[in-house]
């Protein structure tokens, strides 16, 4: 689709948080919201990365971008991300729980410490950020939309991916539970599950020979690896009015890779 043919969803006046918005898919999501008129807060652990991303998005869109250095694996940081955003933009409409830990850990090495790292960042982080948002929304009689970024790995075992896959499967279950508990409050909760995406981590795996790019492309019916904007478009769809009656769903965005 050409740029001219694209119809950007209108998020003018909305406020969105994107965790992990300093790089990769999160950066693309934050940029897409800003292009669509939203005011955006991006959270991550590395302030320099966030500042660089915020400058880039701000220069392109003219939208204000708030930087919140924070570790979603820490409960207090999750509450601080929401509080700082509300304070800066005087409201909150959308939360995208995108930040996650990915690492290959053979299950023989998966002791309590390793497992806790994945659960804290990939499951508790989204839960605590979402709770902080939901408490604020209820108190102020506001609705909202939450999208959790999962992975097709949540349903597909692969050697070394056990902890990551388990954390994403838990995140998808949590998505459905939050959805049914909070839909009556006006909060819609959904998830996207990408296949492989052309982020720096995946491109580095191709360069280093850890992943075979040609074989991967052959295995994807759509004939290409996802671009970060493929995922951002799906997230914006789920956050927007066209998805107003979609609750508790996991939208796979993988060009058919998962079949
Ligand atoms: N790339 C893929 O092919 C792919 C496929 C399926 C699903 N996904 C999912 O898509 C999401 C984004 O992946 P990505 O590949 O774009 O990742 P990425 O390029 O590694 O970026 C992740 C971002 O999250 C931040 N982050 C990591 N841990 C954090 C923490 N504890 N607290 C706050 N921020 C944290 C990182 O910044 P700091 O390091 O500065 O904190 C970074 O900006 C993840 O949920 C991932 O599981 C990715």
Provide structural commentary.
It contains 8 helices and 7 strands; from the N terminus they run βαβαβαβαβαβαααβ. By secondary structure, the protein is α/β, with parallel strands linked by helices. It has a single domain, classed as Rossmann fold. Strands 3-2-1-4-5-6-7 form a 7-stranded parallel sheet, with helices on both faces. Helix 1 (24-35) runs parallel beside helix 2 (47-61) and helix 1 crosses helix 8 (228-239). The longest helix is centred in the middle third of the chain and has 28 residues, at 112-139. It is globular. The chain starts with 14 loop residues before the first strand and ends in a 6-residue tail after the last strand. The mean pLDDT is 96.
What is the CATH superfamily label? NAD(P)-binding Rossmann-like Domain
By CATH reckoning, the class would read Alpha Beta
Shape: globular
Query: Low-confidence parts, pLDDT < 50 over ≥5 residues?
Result: none
| Number of domains as seen in the coordinates | 1
**Strand coverage percent:** 5-15%
- Main sheet record: 7 strands, parallel
The percent of residues in helical segments reads 40-55%
Bound molecules: NADP nicotinamide-adenine-dinucleotide phosphate
Radius of gyration: 17 Å
What class would the helix/strand composition place it in? alpha/beta
- Number of E-state strands: 7
SSE string, helices as H and strands as E: EHEHEHEHEHEHHHE
Q: Count every helix, treating DSSP H or I runs of 4 or more residues as helices.
A: 8
CATH topology: Rossmann fold
- Spatially, the strands of the biggest sheet line up as 3-2-1-4-5-6-7
CATH architecture: 3-Layer(aba) Sandwich
Distance between the termini: 25 Å
The average pLDDT value, as a whole number, equals 96
